[in-house]
Each structure stands twice: as C-alpha cells, then as structure tokens.
Automatic annotation (TrEMBL):
<dbReference type="InterPro" id="IPR000212">
    <property type="entry name" value="DNA_helicase_UvrD/REP"/>
</dbReference>
<dbReference type="Pfam" id="PF13361">
    <property type="entry name" value="UvrD_C"/>
</dbReference>
<keyword id="KW-0347">Helicase</keyword>
<feature type="domain" description="UvrD-like helicase C-terminal">
    <location>
        <begin position="12"/>
        <end position="277"/>
    </location>
</feature>
<keyword id="KW-0547">Nucleotide-binding</keyword>
<keyword id="KW-0067">ATP-binding</keyword>
<keyword id="KW-0378">Hydrolase</keyword>
<dbReference type="InterPro" id="IPR027417">
    <property type="entry name" value="P-loop_NTPase"/>
</dbReference>
<protein>
    <recommendedName>
        <fullName>DNA 3'-5' helicase II</fullName>
    </recommendedName>
</protein>
<dbReference type="InterPro" id="IPR014017">
    <property type="entry name" value="DNA_helicase_UvrD-like_C"/>
</dbReference>
<dbReference type="GO" id="GO:0004386">
    <property type="term" value="F:helicase activity"/>
</dbReference>
C-alpha cells in the first residue's frame, strides 16, 4: 500500500484541523496529510446570535479582503444545506458583491419557494387576473386530475366571462373528480384569505398544509423533497417579517432577479457536496451547528464527518467557521466538529493582521472607503 500523504493545496493549520476531525472516523485508512506550504493562518471560529448577523459579518469580511487585493473568485462560501444560502444571497445583493451559485439556483428561483409564493398570490387575489399565472402553476400541484384539456376549458370560460382562472375554475364543466378537487382547492384559498389576525408565516403554513402540498413532499422520501421542505421552512420564517403579501412578493422579485450571472470574478456559493474537487484561497463555512451539521439525526454520521473534512480542505490559505445561537426561531449550539479541532489550530476571532501584507495607514483608509462604497 502506498499512501499519498502530501497535500499541495492547504497550509499546515488547515491540514492539522482537518486531520483531527477525520481521525474520529473508524472506517478510514490511517494516514496523515502534510504540506510544504508553511504554517499559514489558524482556523477562524466565530459565533453570532442570529443568521442575519452571521451573514452580515461574513459579507463584510469578504468585502474587506477584496479591498486588500483578494479577487472575488478566490473566495467561497460553502454550506451544508442549500436553504442556508438565502440570508447570504440577500447580504451579498445588499453589498453589491458579485456572486455565483454553483450547481444550483438562487433561493427565490427554487421550485418549492416559487410554488409557495404562487399559493400566496392566489390566496390574496383569487378574483384578479394577476393571479392567473399562479393558478396555472398550482392548480394541479399536488395532482387534482387537471390536464391540458381541462385547463383549456377554464381558460375559455375565463376569457368569455372576463374572470380570473381561479374564479372560472368553479364554473367550468370538468370531469367530476377534477371539478370536486378544484372546488375544494379554490375554497381553501378563499377561506384562508379571509382569515384575520394571522401572520403571513401562519397563512403560508396553513396554505401548504390545507392544499396538500406539504403532504405531497412528506410522501416523497428523496433528498430532493427533504431539501424542498427545508427551503419552505426558511421561507415561512422569512414571511414572518412581512405584514402584507405584496411586500413579500416585491422582496422576492428584487432578491431573485439577479443572483449573479456567470462570470470569472465572482464570489462562489455552493453546498459541501458541490465543493468536492474545488479549491479557493479563502473559504467561509457558515452554520456549523448541531441542528444542521451533522444534524439532529443524520442518516450517515460518518459521511457528515467526511464532508467536514472536504469543506475544510477546500481552503488554500484561510478557513473560517461560523455558528449561531439561534436559527429559524430555535436555539442551537456549535457543531461537535468544532470541538475536535485542536486549540492550537484555531482562534475565536478574525485573523486580521496575522501574516498579512503590511499596509500603510493611508492604504487602510482607502480600504475603509472602498468598504463604504460597497455598502459594507
């Protein structure tokens, strides 16, 4: 057996931290990576109260490093679950930092999120033509027996009577099964739309439950369905911060309108699975919390550990781990993987000034000016 133990990518602090984490995997063939790239910088481990605070801090640090000469494409944010990108995307957009999501689409372009926003649109304006596209999207999700021919009949009824598709659906002659299902769907929309005293998050939860959408996802045990449920939980939490449907839809349209066209010089966002084989000078690893990574009941605990190893070793020069005390309305605690990193290989602060090129006071004033111009 020949062990390939020399790592040509990362510095010693990063490799020592990675070796320590993966050493707890009992199925791994024993080997210890080494590097000739020098000691480098210790792993930055920082805690925050909330996800918005965490995202703002990461994006400000990205802006600071860019102002000192680090290219956007040399920095990456790598997370365990794709729903975690939402707060990061919004912070990047606010700061006007170009970014690209690798192997995925922006939060507001994901199927479950678009479906949920369509339900809210139908609930708010069932008798207005602006809800027609939402009806086309959701009338048969989950399946209610409505095919292209049935939808065509509804379209004709709406055109003849000057009605919205939602209103026309209950007046159109369809097969008995489809007619009953659509009448029930429209009734749910109208009943929930008339409720008073509910928050927007509660209304959205009610729509997803009553229409059978969540049951459809629960019946699917695939990873994709689980991811869609996570995205919906993130959207429900976001909706709690809005009082009116139109305000949430406007926010989604603005935030989802430009997730960053593909280009050479952009900050890279991706899941840990997508990061395999890639490398970046600076890597940010948010949400290292027990509820998320490795998760409350991981299907394969050792696979989670290997992902931690992969995520850390994507970094060539600097790796930053962050966690929050509260996320999605619940308390959380730091990931066990953080405790497994030796104290000599991590610091509980930014590595500002450590082994960085010395800058004159004038240069740092310029950095501050550039950060302000970025909105950071």
């Amino acid at each position: 057996m020949f062990k390939l133990e020399e790592n040509f990518r990362s510095t010693r602090h990063i490799l020592d931290a990675s070796n320590a984490v993966i050493s707890f995997d009992p199925s791994r063939i024993e080997k210890r990576l080494f590097t000739r790239r020098g000691e480098g910088l210790p792993i930055e481990v920082l805690g925050f109260s909330y996800a918005t605070e965490e995202a703002a801090a990461i994006i400000r640090e990205i802006g600071r490093r860019a102002a000192t000469g680090v290219a956007w494409h040399d920095m990456a944010i790598i997370y365990r679950q794709n729903r975690l990108s939402r707060t990061l995307e919004e912070a990047l957009l606010h700061a006007r930092i170009p970014y690209e999501i690798i192997g995925d689409v922006g939060f507001y372009r994901r199927t479950a999120v678009k479906d949920a926003l369509a339900l809210l649109t139908l609930c708010a304006w069932p008798d207005e033509r602006r809800s027609d596209e939402a009806f086309r999207r959701m009338a048969n999700r989950p399946p209610r027996g409505l095919g292209a021919r049935g939808l065509g009949k509804i379209e004709m009824e709406a055109s003849t009577g000057g009605l919205s598709l939602c209103a026309a659906a209950t007046r159109t002659r369809l097969s008995p099964r489809c007619a009953v299902a659509l009448q029930g769907f429209v009734q749910i929309l109208r009943q929930i739309g008339c409720r008073e005293g509910e928050s927007l998050g509660e209304r959205l939860t009610g729509l997803l439950e009553a229409t059978g959408y969540l049951d459809m996802l629960r019946a699917d045990d695939s990873d994709e369905a689980a991811t869609q449920r996570e995205n919906l939980a993130e959207l429900i939490e976001l909706a709690q911060g809005f009082r009116r449907v139109e305000h949430l839809l406007e926010h989604a349209a603005l935030a989802g309108g430009a997730p960053g066209e593909k280009g050479r010089d952009r900050v890279q966002l991706m899941t840990m699975h997508r990061s395999k084989g890639l490398e970046f000078r600076h890597v940010f690893l948010p949400a290292w919390e027990e509820a998320i990574f490795p998760g409350a009941m991981p299907r394969n605990p050792e696979e989670e550990r290997r992902l931690a190893y992969v995520a850390l070793t994507r970094a060539m020069e600097q790796a930053t781990i962050t966690f929050c005390d509260y996320r999605q309305g619940g308390s959380s605690r730091p990931s066990r993987f953080i405790d497994e990193i030796p104290l000599e290989n991590r610091v509980s602060s930014w590595n500002h000034g450590r082994n960085e090129p010395r800058q004159s006071d004038g240069r740092w004033r310029q950095v501050d000016q550039e950060l302000n111009a970025l909105g950071l």
